[in-house]
Amino acid sequence: MLKFLKTKSVTLAILAVATFFLLGIYIGSHKQQKIDETTSISNKETPVEITADFEPFWKVWNVINEKYPQANKVSDEERINGSISGLVGSLNDPYSVFFDPSEKEKFEEDISGSFSGIGMEVGIKDKILTIIAPLKDTPAYKANLKSGDKILKIDDKISSDLTIDEAINFIRGERGTTVTLTIFREGERDPQEIKVVRDTINVPTLDSELRKDGVFVIRLYSFTANSSSLFRDALGKFYEAKTDKLIIDLRGNPGGYLDTAIDISSWFLPAGKIVAIEDYGNGKKQKIYRSLGYNMFNDKLKLVILIDGGSASASEIVAGAMKDHDRAILVGSQSYGKGSIQEVVDITPSTVLKITVAKWLTPNGTSISEKGLMPDYKIEITEKDFEEEKDPQMEKAVELLLNWK
Q1: 158 - beta bridge partners?
Q2: pLDDT tens track for 137-183
Q3: Which pTM does this prediction carry?
Q4: Active centre residues (catalytic)
Q5: What is the pLDDT of residues 212-257, one digit of tens each?
Q6: For 30, which of 84, 169, 309, 401 is 20 to 30 Å away at the CA?
Q7: Residue 305 CB burial class (10 angstroms; 0-12, 13-18, ≥19)
Q8: Tell me, what DSSP letter sits at residue 320?
Q9: Which domains does the chain show, CATH number per domain?
Q10: Which of 180, 190, 120 is nearest to 153 (CA)?
């Protein structure tokens, strides 16, 4: 199993239903098969009981066989996969998705980092497809797409008709091809069309600098497999700079691996301190993730973390842990609020299920999914600031560090 914070135990009922479909199919030319209202279903791994009336399902199956002109062109496997997709869709959770064989191949490319597209993270916010963050120096970034932009259409496809994974597949494509996004931006009257040329995406990770005023800045763009080592190296440079003023810029960082978030938080917290809580709901026991205890810095460290609407998932875990343990001041705007956890489970050799299993809580028990994180100092960047290349959020962070008591 793979566990991600982004956008992964699956219910065994799904496995059982798939087995039921495979073993219990009855195809009749004129007769309908009667299914008892209570059906006992089990697979060879785990017994599962389902109380349901399956007669409507089989009736539809047989009507398709009898009346649909091209029924013989749709295989039983394709019908089963479609049925499972509908079952998962009934959860009304944009992050729980069943991948058929062709979709599985694309998904595996995604998690390996080998893909072409426009370079941005998207999610569902207020039931609308929304840009979480364009990644630095990608086509999306260069096209001036922004965190918070609502995507109304992808080419000629209305986004509200798509799951989040379907939307991502339509946005991505071969290098050199163009995708047209119809977006609505807060503060503007009308939607606008933005054409973006796809390219190979190399996800940026981190850069750092020592400012002339003695403030050291680490900009972390994503929580990838190598982010931990790069962050450690950046902290080494911070130590060599002999300053106690540090800014960690998590703006526009859509998240990534849980292990990376724990590792980075561990540089600032004693061993055993809670970094995040995995809450399964329904009275189930929570899982606690604790600091590994690197704890490189004493209480004299002056730390500010920058967040905005593009800070999601692992970014919110790190920022929330630092805030709850009084290790940092948060500056910027409200974070995205992507606090759900998905697991990826192989269903058959050629299909997988990505399903939401829990929510993330900060050490104090605050749900990240509800409203994201509110900064201690809320500073918005206006369109005028953007045009004049001003960064009032960074300016406020520097001001706080230079006047730290």
Answers
A1: 153
A2: 899 999 999 989 999 999 999 999 988 888 988 998 999 999 999 99
A3: 0.73
A4: 313, 324, 338
A5: 999 999 999 989 888 999 999 999 999 999 999 999 999 989 888 8
A6: 84
A7: buried
A8: H
A9: 10-102 (no CATH), 114-200 (2.30.42.10), 206-402 (3.90.226.10)
A10: 180
